[in-house]
Amino acid sequence: MTGIERIAAERTRQIEQEGWSAEHDSRHVNGELALAAALYAAPVALYRVAHRPDSVEWYDPWPWQRWVDPPRGGPMISVDAWDKREKHSRIHRLEIAGALIAAEIDRLTADGNGEKKNPIQLKEASHA
């Protein structure tokens, strides 16, 4: 199976088994699909930096994270079950990344007029 066939099969699986339809994808207007694709495709973990008045924090930019304060203080921790990057083989992560890129392209071109003018305003996640 070629790479493009693998990506198409993964996108079909996402739609048919997970229910991630074009309607669902249309709600992700802040670049979440593309960001998730980049994070799935990266061969190593990627981090964003947050500059605080008294510190600098590095955090995982996964777009669908929820953060909680751990007991007894300490850094915020992610409790998001949607992040399955570590669960999959390298090949499957690339298939997922390609399918997410396809979903983002479809979302951006859904008006039928080619590429939309849709400036993405990436929001800095709040960890305070």
Describe the structure.
The chain is α+β, with helices and mostly antiparallel strands. It has helices at 3-18, 22-25, 32-41, 90-108; strands at residues 48-52, 55-59, 67-68, 77-78. The strands form two sheets. The chain has a two-stranded antiparallel ribbon with strand order 1-2. A two-stranded antiparallel sheet has the order 3-4.
Key traits:
disordered C terminus; 128 residues; 4 helices; 11% strand; globular; two-stranded antiparallel ribbon; two-stranded antiparallel sheet; alpha+beta
In a few lines, what is going on in this structure?
This protein is α+β, with helices and mostly antiparallel strands and 128 residues long.
N to C succession of SSEs: HHHEEEEH
Query: Major sheet: order of its strands?
Result: 1-2
Largest sheet: 2 strands, antiparallel
Helix fraction by DSSP (H/I, runs of at least 4): 25-40%
End-to-end Cα distance: 46 Å
Number of strands: 4
Which term fits the overall shape? Answer: globular
Spans of 5+ residues with little confidence (pLDDT < 50)? 117-128
SS content category: alpha+beta
Radius of gyration computed on alpha carbons? 16 Å
